[in-house]
Amino acid sequence: MDPAADILFMLSSFNLRVQFVRKALLYGRAGVTLFPQDIRFSEVYACALLLDGQIDEAATVLAAGGEVTRNMSYLRARVMLQENPSLNNAQVALRAYLHQGDLS
Protein backbone atom coordinates (compact mmCIF):
# COMPACT_ATOMS: atom_id res chain seq x y z
CA MET A 1 0.00 0.00 0.00
CA ASP A 2 0.94 3.58 -0.54
CA PRO A 3 2.19 5.34 2.64
CA ALA A 4 0.09 8.40 1.75
CA ALA A 5 -3.02 6.21 1.59
CA ASP A 6 -2.20 4.68 4.97
CA ILE A 7 -1.72 8.11 6.57
CA LEU A 8 -4.92 9.46 5.03
CA PHE A 9 -6.83 6.38 6.20
CA MET A 10 -5.39 6.76 9.70
CA LEU A 11 -6.49 10.40 9.82
CA SER A 12 -10.00 9.66 8.56
CA SER A 13 -10.57 6.68 10.86
CA PHE A 14 -9.13 8.49 13.89
CA ASN A 15 -11.36 11.51 13.30
CA LEU A 16 -14.34 9.23 12.91
CA ARG A 17 -13.44 7.44 16.14
CA VAL A 18 -13.27 10.68 18.17
CA GLN A 19 -16.52 11.96 16.59
CA PHE A 20 -14.97 14.69 14.41
CA VAL A 21 -17.43 13.82 11.67
CA ARG A 22 -16.74 16.83 9.44
CA LYS A 23 -13.01 16.08 9.39
CA ALA A 24 -13.71 12.40 8.75
CA LEU A 25 -15.92 13.43 5.82
CA LEU A 26 -13.14 15.58 4.41
CA TYR A 27 -10.44 12.92 4.74
CA GLY A 28 -12.78 10.16 3.57
CA ARG A 29 -13.80 12.11 0.46
CA ALA A 30 -10.16 12.84 -0.30
CA GLY A 31 -9.30 9.17 0.13
CA VAL A 32 -12.11 7.99 -2.16
CA THR A 33 -11.02 10.53 -4.78
CA LEU A 34 -7.29 9.85 -4.60
CA PHE A 35 -7.42 6.09 -4.02
CA PRO A 36 -10.67 4.78 -5.58
CA GLN A 37 -9.43 1.17 -5.56
CA ASP A 38 -8.94 1.16 -1.76
CA ILE A 39 -12.19 -0.07 -0.22
CA ARG A 40 -11.22 1.20 3.26
CA PHE A 41 -11.93 4.78 2.24
CA SER A 42 -15.38 3.93 0.92
CA GLU A 43 -16.21 2.27 4.24
CA VAL A 44 -15.01 5.17 6.38
CA TYR A 45 -16.56 7.79 4.12
CA ALA A 46 -19.93 6.01 4.05
CA CYS A 47 -19.89 5.64 7.83
CA ALA A 48 -19.13 9.35 8.27
CA LEU A 49 -21.95 10.21 5.87
CA LEU A 50 -24.36 8.07 7.87
CA LEU A 51 -23.33 9.75 11.10
CA ASP A 52 -23.81 13.14 9.44
CA GLY A 53 -27.30 12.17 8.28
CA GLN A 54 -26.52 12.15 4.56
CA ILE A 55 -28.25 8.85 3.83
CA ASP A 56 -28.63 9.30 0.06
CA GLU A 57 -24.96 10.19 -0.41
CA ALA A 58 -23.93 7.21 1.73
CA ALA A 59 -26.07 4.93 -0.44
CA THR A 60 -24.34 6.32 -3.55
CA VAL A 61 -20.88 5.70 -2.08
CA LEU A 62 -21.82 2.17 -1.06
CA ALA A 63 -23.28 1.41 -4.48
CA ALA A 64 -20.07 2.58 -6.14
CA GLY A 65 -17.91 0.42 -3.84
CA GLY A 66 -16.77 -2.66 -5.71
CA GLU A 67 -15.84 -5.45 -3.31
CA VAL A 68 -18.46 -6.58 -0.79
CA THR A 69 -16.90 -6.76 2.66
CA ARG A 70 -18.48 -7.36 6.05
CA ASN A 71 -18.29 -3.64 6.81
CA MET A 72 -19.90 -2.72 3.48
CA SER A 73 -22.73 -5.19 4.12
CA TYR A 74 -23.30 -3.67 7.56
CA LEU A 75 -23.36 -0.13 6.19
CA ARG A 76 -25.71 -1.14 3.37
CA ALA A 77 -28.05 -2.70 5.93
CA ARG A 78 -28.00 0.51 8.00
CA VAL A 79 -28.76 2.59 4.92
CA MET A 80 -31.60 0.28 3.94
CA LEU A 81 -33.08 0.42 7.43
CA GLN A 82 -32.94 4.21 7.52
CA GLU A 83 -34.42 4.63 4.06
CA ASN A 84 -37.36 2.29 4.69
CA PRO A 85 -37.68 0.98 8.25
CA SER A 86 -40.47 -1.54 7.60
CA LEU A 87 -40.23 -4.98 9.17
CA ASN A 88 -39.80 -6.76 5.82
CA ASN A 89 -36.93 -4.49 4.78
CA ALA A 90 -35.32 -4.91 8.19
CA GLN A 91 -35.36 -8.68 7.77
CA VAL A 92 -33.90 -8.47 4.26
CA ALA A 93 -31.18 -6.05 5.36
CA LEU A 94 -30.18 -8.12 8.37
CA ARG A 95 -30.11 -11.37 6.40
CA ALA A 96 -27.96 -9.74 3.74
CA TYR A 97 -25.58 -8.47 6.40
CA LEU A 98 -25.32 -11.83 8.12
CA HIS A 99 -24.74 -13.65 4.86
CA GLN A 100 -22.75 -10.83 3.22
CA GLY A 101 -25.17 -11.10 0.38
CA ASP A 102 -26.77 -8.75 -2.04
CA LEU A 103 -29.55 -6.48 -0.78
CA SER A 104 -31.73 -7.01 -3.83
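the 2nd protein, sequnce then structure:
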Amino acid sequence: MARVAWAGSEVRWIGQLGRRLVVVREVDGQRILQVDDWSTVVDERTAVHHRTGLLHHRLVVQQPGRPPVEFRYRLPWPIRSAPFWAATYDLWSAEADDPGLDVVALLGGTDDWV
Protein backbone atom coordinates (compact mmCIF):
# COMPACT_ATOMS: atom_id res chain seq x y z
CA MET A 1 0.00 0.00 0.00
CA ALA A 2 1.13 3.49 -0.75
CA ARG A 3 0.97 6.33 1.73
CA VAL A 4 -1.02 9.17 0.21
CA ALA A 5 -2.25 12.39 1.83
CA TRP A 6 -4.54 15.05 0.43
CA ALA A 7 -5.29 18.30 2.21
CA GLY A 8 -8.96 18.73 3.04
CA SER A 9 -10.04 15.23 2.03
CA GLU A 10 -10.85 12.06 3.88
CA VAL A 11 -9.48 8.82 2.43
CA ARG A 12 -12.14 6.07 2.60
CA TRP A 13 -10.17 3.26 0.95
CA ILE A 14 -6.69 2.88 -0.49
CA GLY A 15 -5.14 -0.21 -2.00
CA GLN A 16 -3.92 -2.04 -5.07
CA LEU A 17 -5.92 -3.66 -7.83
CA GLY A 18 -3.26 -5.69 -9.53
CA ARG A 19 -0.53 -3.10 -10.10
CA ARG A 20 -2.87 -0.11 -10.03
CA LEU A 21 -3.10 2.24 -7.06
CA VAL A 22 -6.76 2.89 -6.22
CA VAL A 23 -7.97 5.57 -3.81
CA VAL A 24 -11.54 6.35 -2.81
CA ARG A 25 -11.79 9.65 -0.95
CA GLU A 26 -14.38 12.18 0.05
CA VAL A 27 -14.01 15.92 -0.50
CA ASP A 28 -16.80 18.33 0.45
CA GLY A 29 -19.38 15.53 0.39
CA GLN A 30 -18.31 14.23 -3.03
CA ARG A 31 -16.85 10.75 -3.49
CA ILE A 32 -13.83 10.64 -5.74
CA LEU A 33 -12.46 7.47 -7.33
CA GLN A 34 -8.84 7.68 -8.39
CA VAL A 35 -7.12 4.89 -10.31
CA ASP A 36 -3.46 5.71 -10.99
CA ASP A 37 -3.58 9.07 -12.86
CA TRP A 38 -7.31 8.89 -13.74
CA SER A 39 -9.98 10.22 -11.38
CA THR A 40 -13.69 11.03 -11.40
CA VAL A 41 -16.44 12.15 -9.07
CA VAL A 42 -18.81 9.26 -8.31
CA ASP A 43 -22.35 10.55 -7.94
CA GLU A 44 -25.84 9.04 -8.26
CA ARG A 45 -25.58 9.05 -12.09
CA THR A 46 -22.30 7.10 -12.10
CA ALA A 47 -22.51 3.33 -12.41
CA VAL A 48 -19.62 1.23 -11.09
CA HIS A 49 -19.51 -2.48 -11.99
CA HIS A 50 -17.19 -5.33 -11.08
CA ARG A 51 -16.83 -8.15 -13.59
CA THR A 52 -15.07 -11.41 -12.83
CA GLY A 53 -13.17 -13.20 -15.56
CA LEU A 54 -11.06 -16.32 -15.71
CA LEU A 55 -7.75 -14.51 -16.24
CA HIS A 56 -8.53 -10.99 -15.08
CA HIS A 57 -11.10 -8.91 -13.25
CA ARG A 58 -12.55 -5.61 -14.45
CA LEU A 59 -13.70 -2.46 -12.73
CA VAL A 60 -16.01 -0.57 -15.13
CA VAL A 61 -17.07 3.04 -14.52
CA GLN A 62 -19.96 4.40 -16.62
CA GLN A 63 -21.05 8.02 -16.63
CA PRO A 64 -23.77 9.62 -18.74
CA GLY A 65 -22.47 11.23 -21.90
CA ARG A 66 -19.05 9.59 -21.61
CA PRO A 67 -17.70 6.29 -22.89
CA PRO A 68 -17.27 3.63 -20.18
CA VAL A 69 -13.82 3.36 -18.60
CA GLU A 70 -12.55 -0.14 -17.87
CA PHE A 71 -9.66 -1.07 -15.60
CA ARG A 72 -8.45 -4.65 -15.88
CA TYR A 73 -6.38 -6.25 -13.16
CA ARG A 74 -5.11 -9.66 -12.20
CA LEU A 75 -5.04 -11.38 -8.86
CA PRO A 76 -2.30 -13.85 -7.87
CA TRP A 77 -2.85 -17.28 -9.44
CA PRO A 78 -3.70 -19.12 -6.17
CA ILE A 79 -6.55 -16.68 -5.62
CA ARG A 80 -7.73 -16.91 -9.24
CA SER A 81 -7.87 -20.69 -9.01
CA ALA A 82 -9.58 -20.81 -5.57
CA PRO A 83 -13.13 -21.13 -6.96
CA PHE A 84 -12.07 -24.31 -8.81
CA TRP A 85 -10.59 -26.15 -5.83
CA ALA A 86 -12.60 -24.79 -2.90
CA ALA A 87 -16.09 -26.30 -2.85
CA THR A 88 -17.35 -23.66 -0.42
CA TYR A 89 -15.98 -20.62 -2.29
CA ASP A 90 -18.69 -17.94 -2.19
CA LEU A 91 -19.16 -14.17 -2.17
CA TRP A 92 -17.66 -13.78 1.30
CA SER A 93 -14.55 -15.71 0.28
CA ALA A 94 -14.29 -13.63 -2.89
CA GLU A 95 -14.58 -10.38 -0.92
CA ALA A 96 -11.68 -11.48 1.26
CA ASP A 97 -9.57 -12.28 -1.84
CA ASP A 98 -10.51 -9.49 -4.28
CA PRO A 99 -10.18 -5.86 -3.15
CA GLY A 100 -12.09 -4.72 -6.24
CA LEU A 101 -15.30 -6.02 -4.66
CA ASP A 102 -14.68 -3.77 -1.66
CA VAL A 103 -14.24 -0.73 -3.90
CA VAL A 104 -17.47 -1.46 -5.79
CA ALA A 105 -19.42 -2.00 -2.56
CA LEU A 106 -18.06 1.25 -1.11
CA LEU A 107 -19.15 3.16 -4.23
CA GLY A 108 -22.60 1.53 -4.35
CA GLY A 109 -21.93 -0.43 -7.52
CA THR A 110 -22.78 -3.92 -8.69
CA ASP A 111 -20.87 -7.15 -9.17
CA ASP A 112 -21.56 -10.35 -11.09
CA TRP A 113 -22.00 -12.60 -8.04
CA VAL A 114 -25.45 -14.15 -7.94
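The helical segments are 77-85, 91-97, 99-106. The two ends are 30 Å apart (CA to CA).
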